[in-house]
Amino acid sequence: MDERTEHVRDDWNRMAAGYDRGERLQRLFMGRVRARLCGAAEGRTLEVAVGTGHDLPYHPDGVELTGLDLSPAMLAAARRRATALGRPVTLVEGDAQDLPFGDGDFDTVLCALALCAIPDQRRALTEMHRVLRPGGRLLLVDHIEYTRWPMRLREARKERPRRLPRAVAEEVGFAVDRHDRTALGLLELVVAHRP
To answer: For residue 186, what are the CA distances in angstroms to 102, 120, 139, 170?
Structure first.
C-alpha cells in the first residue's frame, strides 16, 4: 500500500465513529439512488468500499455478498450493521486498487460514493474489471462535482486528477450500458458490463 493510500485509510478510520450521523441527510439528498443501484446486483456481488454498510439493506435476497473496505474501523461498523440486519455478508479488509480476489470471481461489482476518494480511479476500475466475469456488471454511483467549472481547474492541478468515472470505466474496457445524473447533477449513476 502506498503512502497516499495509507493516509486515506487513516482518514476513514478517524471518520468511522461519526460517519453514520450524516446518513439521514444523505438519504434526503440521494433519494432512492442506493436502492436502485443495489437492486440491480445479482449473483456473487462485490461491494467495493462498503464503508459502514449503508447499502446492506438494499441488496436483493439471493446475492452472495462480499464487502471490501480499506478501513478496519469502517468494517467493524459494517459488521455490526450486518448482524443487526441479519444479513449474511463476507467482509474483507483490502485496497480497491489491488483487490484480493481472483480474475472473474464476481457477477456484479458495485461501488457507491467511493471512487472519488480512492487515490487512483483508473487502477481501481481496472481491478474491478479484472475481478468481474465476462458479461458481469459494474454498478457505480459517484460524486462528479469536480468535473464542473471552477472545480475542474483545481482538480487539473492535482498529481492524479479525478475524471468522470464513466470515461475511465470505458478506457479500462467496460461497455457502458446506461448512465444518468441525479442529485442536482452532482452524482452520476453508471451501469456497465465487462464484454
So the answer is: 33, 20, 17, 20
Residue 72: all three cell numbers together: 478496519
**Kind and range of the H or E run holding 44:** strand 44-48
> Which candidate, 137, 148, 86, 141, places its Cα nearest to that of 115?
141
φ/ψ of residue 166, rounded to 5: -65, -35
Q: How far apart are CA 6 and CA 60, in angstroms?
A: 33
What tens digit of pLDDT does each residue of 16-67 get? Answer: 887 777 676 666 666 688 899 999 999 999 999 999 999 999 999 999 999 9
| Mean pLDDT, rounded, for 179-187 | 77
User: What is the C-alpha to C-alpha distance for residues 193 and 140, in angstroms, rounded to an integer?
Assistant: 11
pLDDT tens-digit map of 125-178? 999 999 999 999 999 999 876 566 676 666 667 777 668 899 999 999 999 999
Residues with Cβ within 8 Å of residue 65, at least 6 apart in sequence: 41, 45, 47, 56, 59, 87, 88, 89, 90
138 vs 111: CA distance, rounded Å: 8
Question: What one-letter code names the amino acid at 6?
Answer: E
Residue 183 has pLDDT above 90, yes or no: no
Q: What is the spatial distance between Cα 180 and Cα 129, in angstroms, rounded to a whole number?
A: 21
CA nearest neighbour of 109 among 19, 52, 193: 193
Which residue type does 32 have?
R
